[in-house]
Amino acid sequence: MRRFGPLETTGDRTAATTQPCPAGAVSEGDRVKIDATGGSDVAPADVTPLVQLVAPDGSRVAGPDDAALRERVAHLTTDDLRAMYRDMVLTRRFDDEATSLQRQGELALYAQSRGQEAAQVGSARALAAQDYVFPSYREHGVLHVRGVDPVDRLRLYRGEDHGGWDPNEHNVHLYTLVIGSHALHATGYAMGIQRDGLVGTGDATRDAAVVTYFGDGATSQGDVNEALVFAAVNNAPVVFFCQNNQWAISEPTTKQSRVPIYRRGEGFGIPSVRVDGNDVLACYAVTAEALERAHSGGGPTFVEAYTYRMGAHTTSDDPSRYRDLAEEEQWRRRDPVERLEALLRAEGGWDETWAAELQAEAEAYGERLRDGVRALGAPDVETMFENVYATDHAQVTAERAWFREYESATAGEEVAR
Amino acid sequence: MSTPTTTQTLTFARAITEGLRAALEQDGTAMLMGEDIGRLGGVFRVTDGLQKDFGEARVVDTPLAESGIVGTAIGLALRGYRPVCEIQFDGFVFPAYDQITTQLSKMRYRSRGRLEVPVVIRIPYGGGIGAVEHHSESPEALFAHTAGLRVVSPATPQDAYDMIRAAVASPDPVLFFEPKGRYWSKGEVTLGGPVPDAGTPGVLDTARVARAGDDVTLVAYGPTVATALKAADALAAEGTSAEVVDLRAISPLDVPAVAASVRRTGRCVVVHEAPSFLGVGAEIAARVSEECFYSLEAPVQRVAGFHAPYPVAKLEHEYLPSVDRVVDAVDRALSF
């Protein structure tokens, strides 16, 4: 019988540490300019605070207000940074291979994560093993970090499965295609963690939390707003990780909100922060801070990772119809993978032999993925009647029996499809 | 787990309360969620006293957001809990319609059985109480049309008690439609005993014969079972013997029970408050024509709501299936 623990109703609700920077995120090619006037409450209209720890040129940023966040990445060694770089390189390889597989007719559809690797890898690297993830459908980097098999990640896009992996094996829920629905599932799951008494135990191996991923467009959905309401009033241990990739298919964020997205979280009384989504260390740091708050009983956090969808919405999309190449080029110069490479080079962590080995690993990884996807067959036809219900349902049983009979009676007689 | 049984006379609403109480006592993962269900005990008092007895973590007053209620219930179920959600009135379930149809109903299927979402959604439904708009509707067919959901509706206090316990114990999501017009009707209820449906088939997927008869089969569920029984009394006075089949479950539909009755009587009249067009009665008519074609003495008749929005309270008794309309339909079936 499940134990109902005491519900945490109080906690640290102070806002995450932020530093201001010019609106529109990272200034081109440079480290951010520091506006010393303070946090979001007093920021002038044209200044939006943004957490950034590594500038696009690979240099470390040391703002006056981000000491606590810098402390959160201080323990990361060169090997740790290389591991993050490897995650990002393999995630991008996964993206490229999957896109090719779709072009070759091996996948029905694919949604790229290109450009969002830092947001995904940085946040996922901050998770504890017992934390649970509710992704949208583009979180390939998160799934990579959590160890979900790359082939399994493409079963959905191949039309072989509506899910593809065992959620409880990796603490990663299935991809959810109805925008924002899973934000509520994440919040409910977090309410379950509260009832399990696994918040604020002080034991880092037991305290658990939930991270849910969604995009800028999803913040307009009722379900995301209701999730923020439920999380706030229940003080639920959930991190709302919004990847603002600037585009909801063809609609820019100005079609979703007249305030910076992160301020929507503030409106619900939830500590909220905008982070440079192309800075893997900043994403790691703010997620670690948010998870610490959740684990300790401080409740939810809203993170807006300011990033860019470098690719199309999906392989069915054509961005040339709604955005210009200059914008894409501007963001290409803020490539998150290149930024981490620049950091490694700047700090002596880059090694050509290691880099060559990683490229070879990526090649082999791609080949395994191609072979694995092509080897996937179609599920047995009768599986369409399975797991509709846990227990017998007369109509499903009768229709399956009819179908079986029909298939058997008409075997070899098909004249047309 | 079973407890000693006792028999009491209870209202329909109180029978559900006692069923919920038994579920909360016997299953530590069971919990209730909804608007005003805690200190107030629900607008119909169905959860009266339960928060006091089981605490705020298990009887949860939620924000006023139906999609949020069902969506978070799904998350709680994924974590191992058994949430029972109360939707305050039938017409207010639609903000949650997306969560119920795209998420709740498909989670098991989508995950190939790896995930289970044993969520119960209680919905007071039906008319006849003089209410304002959105408080008298019968949307059960909308949910029965979605695979993955079980849709049930009790008609007696005993079934209300048994079926809510079975619904909480069910590994499948259950839409539990409560005929609010019957909340204050009373009946003998045997409390305690093992959870029904420990073995299937049980109260969640079988019909019951509410009254035996030979000349015509009246098929009803929820609020119209009482209407059908009254009609059967009136028909008996005229010398017609009507059998009343209480479906209890709409999904799954107990077709063999209906067909067995109609094969004997040769006539079938379906009675429900929801509109007849594309409704449960249409499905039953199709099934009866498939199963009982050579036994039928007349086309299946339907007595149901009209294809118009639920009317104002001053007109609702013209809209709802009445004893007279049921008797009229039986007369048509008999004279065919």
Total DSSP E strands of chain B:
14
This entry's quaternary arrangement is: heterodimer
- Name the strands of the widest sheet of chain B in spatial order: 3-2-4-5-7-6-12
The CATH superfamily name of the largest domain in chain B is Thiamin diphosphate (ThDP)-binding fold, Pyr/PP domains
CATH architecture of the largest domain in chain A: 3-Layer(aba) Sandwich
Taken as a percent bin, the fraction of beta residues of chain B is: 15-25%
The percentage helix of chain B is 25-40%
Residue fraction in strands of chain A: 5-15%
CATH architecture of the largest domain in chain B, please?
3-Layer(aba) Sandwich
The top level CATH class name of the largest domain in chain A: Alpha Beta
Q: In summary, what is this structure?
A:
Chain A has helices at about 65-75, 80-105, 115-125, 140-145, 150-155, 155-160, 165-170, 180-195, 220-235, 260-265, 280-295, 325-330, 335-345, 350-375, 395-410; strands at about 20, 45-50, 130-135, 210-215, 240-245, 245-250, 250, 270-275, 300-305. Chain A is an alpha/beta fold and about 425 residues long.
Polypeptide structure, described:
- The complex is a heterodimer of chains A (417) and B (336).
- Chain A is α/β, with parallel strands linked by helices.
- Chain A folds into two domains: 20-375, Rossmann fold, CATH 3.40.50.970; 381-417, no CATH class.
- Chain A is 41% helix and 9% strand.
- Chain A is built from 15 helices and nine strands.
- A five-stranded parallel beta sheet of chain A has the order 3-4-5-9-8, with helices on both faces.
- In chain A, helix 1 crosses helix 11, helix 2 runs parallel beside helix 14 and helix 3 packs parallel to helix 11.
- The longest helix of chain A has 26 residues, at 78-103.
- The radius of gyration of chain A is 23 Å and the shape is globular.
- Mean pLDDT of chain A is 90; it is low at 5-46.
- Chain B has two domains: 8-191, Thiamin diphosphate (ThDP)-binding fold, Pyr/PP domains (Rossmann fold), CATH 3.40.50.970; 208-335, Rossmann fold.
- In chain B, helix 7 (157-169) links the parallel strand 6 and strand 7.
- Chain B has helices at residues 12-26, 50-54, 66-78, 97-103, 107-110, 140-144, 157-169, 224-237, 255-265, 280-291, 316-319, 323-335, and strands spanning 6-11, 30-34, 59-61, 82-86, 120-125, 150-152, 174-179, 186-191, 208-211, 216-220, 242-246, 249-251, 268-275, 301-305.
- The radius of gyration of chain B is 19 Å and the shape is globular.
- Chain B is built from twelve helices and 14 strands.
- In chain B, helix 9 (255-265) packs across helix 10 (280-291).
- Chain B is α/β, with parallel strands linked by helices and 336 residues long.
- The interface between A and B is large, with 50 and 55 residues.
